[in-house]
Structure formats: C-alpha cells, structure tokens
Amino acid sequence: MKLEILGRNYDPSDSLKSVTEKKSAKLARRLSGDEEATVKFTVTLENGVYSTDAVVTARGATYRAEAQSDSPFDNIDIVIPRLLGQMRKQKDVWGRDKKGSPSVYDEEEE
Fold this sequence. Notes:
With 110 residues, this protein is α+β, with helices and mostly antiparallel strands.
C-alpha cells in the first residue's frame, strides 16, 4: 500500500504524518495483498478551517471521504471510519448472490 500525505496552503507536520500512518494501518489490513493500492490524504487550510480529503484506489475501485473541522487530527478520526464503511459495504455487495439465480449449478450426467 502506498500512502501519500499532501497539503494545500498548509505544510503537514511530522506528527500529523505519523498519526495518519498509524491510523491508516486499519486501511492496510483491509487492503492486504494489494501492492498497487494507493491512499492519498490532502489537507487544506482555508479561513482557519482544515479540510481533509482521502481517496483510496484499490482493486479497480475508488473510495472517497471528506471532513472539515478546526483540527486536521480530528478529520483523520472522521475520514478513516467513513472509508472503512464504504469498503465494508462494497464487500457485502460483491459477496451477495444475485436474486433469482442459483449459486450452485449441478452437473448433468450423460
């Protein structure tokens, strides 16, 4: 998993980077086995309000979450559970059988 932390009108501190890396370990567990996965955090400061945008691209799917508050650390606590919820929901959808179609086909004997 590749992790990027970018800032617009803001220079992300080392403590923010370390906290983000630590908390994104939950995402890494969900993305285990996918070396091509990328997680990109963009922190923007506008008028004293921090906006954090997170985009995860993995296995052909893209997940996105955004949060705004007075602290970029609080935004990380909001964004990561939102991404995990989207991933969990997508996993449930992909794992479900379609209505009306049998999940197991019997082989015909000749």
